[in-house]
Amino acid sequence: MRSGSRQDILQGTLTLLVLQTLGSGEKHGYAIAQTIEQVSKELLRVEEGSLYPALHRMEQDGVIQSEWKLTETNRRARFYSLTSEGRARLKQETENWERLKAGVGLVLGWAQ
Amino acid sequence: MAWLNRLKNTLLRRDVIGQEADDEIAFHLEERTRENVARGMTPTDARREAQLRFGSRARLREETREADTLLWLEALTRDSRLALRGLVHRPGLALTAVLSLGLGIGATSAIFSVVDTVLLKPLPYPEPEQLVSIQESILGQALGGNPARLADWQRQLPALSGLVGLYGEGVVLTGRGEPRRLTVRRSIGPVFAVLGIAPRLGRPYAEWNESEVVLSHEFWQTHLGGDRSILGKTLNLSQKTYTVVGVMPPSSGEGPQADLFASANVSFNSPDRTGNWLDLVGRRQPGESLERLNTQLATVAARLSAQYPATESGLSARAIPLLDADTADARRPLWLLLATISAVLLVVCANIASLLLVRAGERQHEFAVRAALGAGWANLLRLQLLESLWLSLTGGGLGLLIAYWGVDLLKYILPPDLPRIETVSLDTRVASFALILALVAGLFCGLLASLGGNPLHLRDGARSTRRTWLRPAFVVVQVVLSTLLLAGAARFTESLIASIRTPLGFQAEGLLAMSYSFPWDTDQKKLNETYQATLDQLAAIPGVRGVGFVDQLPLRGGTQSGQVEVAGRELAPILRNLPISQRSISDAYFTTLGLPLLAGRMFRPHATGVMECVINATFAKLYFPGEDPVGRRITFDTKRQPGEAPRWLTITGVVTDLRQEPRQARAAAEAFMPFTRQYWPLAKFVVRGSGDPASLMAAVRQRMLAVDPNLPIEALRPLSDDLREAASDTRTLTGLLSGFALTALLVAAIGLYGLLAGEVTTRQREIGIRLALGAEPQAVLRSIIRRGMALVTVGLAVGLVLCYPALQLLTSQDSPMTAGALAAALMLMVAFVSSAIPGRRAARVDPAIALRHE
User: Fold this and answer.
1) Of B15, B46, B69, which closes a domain?
2) What residues does B673 pair with on adjacent strands?
3) Could you tell me if residue B215 is inside a domain?
4) Average pLDDT, 10 consecutive residues per value, chain B (854 residues)
5) What is the pLDDT of residues B27-63, one digit of tens each?
6) Which residues of chain A have pLDDT under 50?
7) pLDDT of residue A3
8) Cross-chain CB nearest to A53 (options B23, B27, B67)
């Protein structure tokens, strides 16, 4: 089922992506997966089997919170949203990622 | 706090969490399916694609749940339920294990609570680890502190921030109802600063101000009703007037508590270096080590020794932590008790491990099924450990309950002069100790039992992987431990019996004892007059046949002692340095006791020109072997200036030995002098009547009013009561040790019995065949007994070898032969019985039934 051009999400970056996705407002799990795939122009693909455990872990860690609500189509779904702690984490994780990206980029540039 | 939330989810919201995970997954799948349909898939394909993308729904559900809950705790509770259910099906095993572990843990925790409070808890002063006791000695003989020397120490030890001398004194409070005897703790030096304490009301007493007193909180509350206006008022103590200047805070039960606190008598503020009676307590400077303090002490002691050869020649001193000094006598017996009861607990654990081992054997089939269903080795081990942990934790709970009563029992039977014994209680420290003990015991038993073999291998029917030597090995270890305990207890019992058997040398029945005391600065004339008046008044009671004064009652220890010189003889160094008791008595003391003179005559108390004394048989044997000591002269006046003539004492007679201590093997050398010549304000009297000594008590009280109505009489009771009490510490310790040792023996015997009975059951068929083939039942019986005795002999041999160094450690004297032999005999006897019972059952196996078996 997997196309070669699609990337499975790197271990550990899922948290960052979920936080970033929720930054624009609360979403249910399916919407989170959809958003990541659409925004990344289908370059990234969320492993659905690991999304929900990650969401629950993040909730236990206090960076996101959840609530059962009705969707626009009037169906019950669990909506996740950022907590204030989550917002701080998002900022920090983004910086970490930028640093990592820069570091990796430098190394690659040097190797070429 | 994520784990707390997870714990809450695990315990309370388990079902909700599972349901929500399901709902969430279902919603996701429906959304995906709907989208797939919207993209043009058939509903069936759409659903299939959604599910494929999702992967295993069950695994996802578990992983999601794992994020929200503590899965391991869930597994633990599930396995615990399983273990508990398993135990409920074996009520005999469960009950035996819980009861025996409960008793073991309870007794160990109770004794630990005493050890903890008496030996381990810091003293209730600020920075208690800085407090030290300075212990002085001359030529190895302990010496009390002296005020003039205290001043030298105070000036010359930079490692100390302060040093004080303390002593207790009995005083009589008059003018506030009935005269009442009180204890005063008197001090020289900055006692409040050194101990770090301060009065709660008022101020400390001034040093060397003999008319100020500070009250203990307890005395203030019970006798003065907590009256705050007492400050500035006066108390009349032993005919002297004191002004109350302060009240201390409530004591936290540190040691024998004084009623009052005051400065030392002014008369001791002098350069006199002869009297030695102070307890020295110092506080180390922060950052100064005990080693540095001891180095300084050694230097100063050498300096003082050279400076004052008459009084301090050979002086040495060392500092030890104050807590250790306070508990020096209690240390060994208490650790011994704790070690003993721990060994008993170990013997109990071996039995439980053995039982669990049998159970593991019985569960082979069950384990094989579980293994076949996918349980790993770790799961099966967890199941086994949980079972033993539940047993031990339940036992621990029961143990706490038992410890709760045990502590009260121990407080009742242990000697009341153990420091802080009255504050012993079941606190959180003891509870944690019990809990840890239970956990350790549970893991220990469970792991021992799991040594029986990897349960996974059992399903192969490979019996060889089961370690059949394990249970016999447990029995051997039990026998080793029991032998050690029995030999130890036998050793103590032996010396107790020896001390009871050793004749007192006199008739204690029919004697009445009484005591009273004066402050230490009472003058000799007043003492002599009161003592003589007491002797006269008591002798005049109708029916009284004799009255005697003595400084200390028999078996209550000695009083003063010193080195002796013999006129016209150079003594061997060992004899020169031997401390000899100097006792003061009235001339009728020996006849009142009925203690016969072996040679010569009694001293004359008022002999003119000469001073006379009587020595005991041990003294005569040591210093005058093969000679007649009567007429020889001795002196204790060794601290005189050089060239000065000593005060000689002429020996007029030799008296039978009398033991000073209940557990004393040999009597100490003693010299007896008239009380009029010795200073001793703590008077004891013995009175011999014609009948029951108790019948004289009223008359004695009556007569004492004529001597001094303000003198409180203490400890008026038959002398035999006093003697019994004097020996009670030894008896208590011996009783406890023997009880523990016998318990260990019993538990080991049960272990042996269980092993052999189990073997007989499994061998029933074989034994039946043997009997059917004509084996003698007697031979079967013998073979079982032989097996039991062989195990016990191995354990006994190891135990006896080990008990030699162990007993040497315990009591330095004599060889432990008798004790070892006694332990061995007892062990063999009990082992014989525990092997004979299953042996008889084996001999009675009916061959026919055995052949039909299975």
Assistant:
1) B69
2) B584
3) yes
4) 73 78 86 87 87 78 75 78 82 85 91 88 87 85 83 92 88 79 88 90 89 90 88 87 91 67 85 81 91 93 86 85 83 87 90 84 78 78 85 92 90 79 85 91 84 57 59 88 87 74 72 83 84 86 87 78 81 73 88 86 81 90 87 80 77 86 72 86 86 81 81 82 75 86 89 88 85 87 91 90 74 64 88 91 80 60
5) 888 888 888 898 888 888 888 888 887 777 777 777 7
6) 1-5
7) 40
8) B67
Q: Kindly report the nearest CA distance between residue B39 and chain A, in angstroms.
A: 15
Task: Assign B304 to helix, strand or coil.
Answer: helix
Q: Does residue A44 sit within a domain?
A: yes
Query: Are B664 and B536 in a shared domain?
Result: yes
Nearest CA to CA, how far is A96 from chain B (Å)? 24
Is A2 within the bounds of a domain? no
CB-side neighbour CA atoms (13 Å) of B667: 22
- B365 with B463, same domain: the answer is yes
Contact A60 B68 (CB under 8 A): yes
Query: Domain for residue A11, yes or no?
Result: yes
Cα separation of B344 and B347, whole Å?
A: 5
Contact B489, B820 (CB under 8 A): no
B residues 15-74 closer than 8 Å to A (CB): 20-21, 23-25, 27-28, 30-32, 49, 52-56, 59-60, 63-64, 66-68
On whether both B515 and B627 belong to a single domain, the answer is yes
Of B69, B95, B123, the residue at which a domain comes to its end is B69
Whole-number Cα distances in Å, B324 to B54, B120, B197, B320: 70, 9, 20, 7
Is B289 within a domain?
Answer: yes
Q: Phi, psi at residue B302, to the nearest 5°?
A: -65, -40
Closest Cα in chain B, distance from residue A95 (Å): 25
Helix (H, G, I), strand (E, B) or coil at B692: coil
B391 lies in the same domain as B446: yes
Does a structural domain hold residue B99?
Answer: no
Q: Total structural domains in chain B?
A: 4
Query: Are residue B298 and residue B240 in the same domain, yes or no?
Result: yes
Distance CA B25, CA B3 (A): 24
Give the burial class of B791: count Cβ atoms within 10 A of its Cβ; 0-12 exposed, 13-18 middle, 19 or more buried: buried
Structural domain count, chain A: 1
Quick check: is A1 in a domain? no
Residue B810 lies in a domain: yes
Among chain A residues, CA nearest to B28: A30
Q: B516 and B431 in one domain? A: no
Residues of A in contact with B6 (CB under 8 A): 60
The pLDDT value recorded for residue B554 is 81
In Å, how far is B15's CA from the nearest CA of chain A? 16
Chain A positions contacting chain B at CB under 8 Å are 1, 28-30, 33, 48-50, 52-57, 59-62, 68, 75-78
pLDDT of residue B461: 47
pLDDT per position as a tens digit, B470-495: 888 888 988 999 988 888 888 888 77
Residue A79: closest C-alpha in chain B: B24
Question: Which residues constitute the domain of residue B685?
Answer: 511-690
Candidates A48, A60, A78; nearest CB to B5: A60
ipTM above 0.95, yes or no: no
Test the B interface: residue of A2, A3, A30, A50 with most B CBs within 10 Å: A30
* Judgement on whether residues B744 and B840 belong to the same structural domain of the protein: yes
